[in-house]
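To illustrate the input format used throughout this study, we show a single complete record. The first block contains the structure-token representation of the backbone; no residue identities are included at this stage. The design step must infer an amino acid for every position from geometry alone.
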């Protein structure tokens, strides 16, 4: 059985490195540094998981109606990879804004507050 793909979108130094855990879970990790690159990957081949850090748009730096960096990703997943499980990481001060992702009809596998632990991540991978 081939490995499943997990895409990690690493956009900040707070992003945890769980490469060993992913390997243990028989997941092939593809690391990218932007949501745009992650979307390009899932257009070519659906992923089992995506792990991404949430950033709330305090100003209007995200396009149009979006209030975070992840909404366009979730919209793309509906079309290109609807079975992808999304795990969101967020800083404590951003946790209060996670609900903006509810506007997109793609469920989250879970949300973890940074810093996270391998045990927390494994629970979401197993769930």
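Output of the design step:
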């Amino acid at each position: 059985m081939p490995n499943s793909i997990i895409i990690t979108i690493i956009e900040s130094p707070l992003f945890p490195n769980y490469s060993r855990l992913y390997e243990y879970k028989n997941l092939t990790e593809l690391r990218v540094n932007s949501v745009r690159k992650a979307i390009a990957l899932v257009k070519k081949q659906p992923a089992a998981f995506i792990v991404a850090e949430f950033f709330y748009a305090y100003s209007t730096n995200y396009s149009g109606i979006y209030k975070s960096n992840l909404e366009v990703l979730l919209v793309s997943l509906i079309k290109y990879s609807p079975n992808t499980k999304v795990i969101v990481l967020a800083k404590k001060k951003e946790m209060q804004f996670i609900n903006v992702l509810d506007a997109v009809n793609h469920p989250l596998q879970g949300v973890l507050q940074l810093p996270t632990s391998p045990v927390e991540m494994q629970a979401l991978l197993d769930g």
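Structural context for interpreting the output: The first strand starts at residue 4 and ends at 9. The chain is about 30% helix and 20% strand.
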